[in-house]
Amino acid sequence: MSSIIYKIVPATLWQDARKTGEFKGASIDLSDGFIHFSTADQAIETAARHFAGQDGLLLVAVDGDKLGDKLVFEASRGGALFPHLYAALSFDAVVWEKPLPLDADGNHVFPELDR
User: Fold this and answer.
1) What does the alpha-carbon distance between residue 21 and residue 93 come to, in Å, rounded to a whole number?
2) How many CB atoms lie within 10 A of CB 8?
3) CA pair distance 99, 53, nearest whole angstrom
4) Handedness of CA 21, 92, 30, 42 (dihedral sign)
5) What are 47-57's pLDDT values in tens digits?
6) pLDDT band at 1 (very low <50, low <70, confident <90, very high)
7) How many domains does the chain have?
8) Which residues touch 74 (CB under 8 Å, ≥6 apart)?
């Protein structure tokens, strides 16, 4: 099983975080007290449910093994276990970041994901 988890984030928010040296989360993360991530099997549905029609997004791949015990898998949508990070995200754990463009129908076009 891959240790890669994914974060969908507005490109501008990510670029601002790069300047500070760590990603503390989007507004939903800050209000919930942890950074929401998805596994490869969850990312497409997460995009459809929470980012429908939004342009200017990035998909960020993160090595979950580098996050230590601050990464917790907790039951969420439909009882599925989702990765939640109870700390700021260090860029040392980032594997890659890629644009998440929209197709002609307004659906996000995903790169190949590590499963």
Assistant:
1) 12
2) 21
3) 14
4) positive
5) 999 999 999 99
6) low
7) 1
8) 81, 82, 84
CB 6 within 8 A of CB 37: yes
How is residue 17 written in tokens? Answer: 């975080």
The stretches of 6-111 forming alpha helices (DSSP H) are: 11-20, 27-32, 40-50
Tokens coding 44: 């497409």
65-86 confidence digits (pLDDT tens): 999 999 999 998 788 899 999 9
Residue 24 lies in domain: 4-99
Residue 113 placed within a domain: no
CATH number, position 62: 3.20.170.20
Distance CA 21, CA 92 (A): 10
**Does residue 111 lie within any of the structural domains?**
no
Averaged over 13-22, what is the pLDDT? 94
The average pLDDT across 2-21 equals 94
The pLDDT mean for the chain works out to: 94
Tokens of 23: 């990603």
Q: How many residues in total does the chain contain?
A: 115
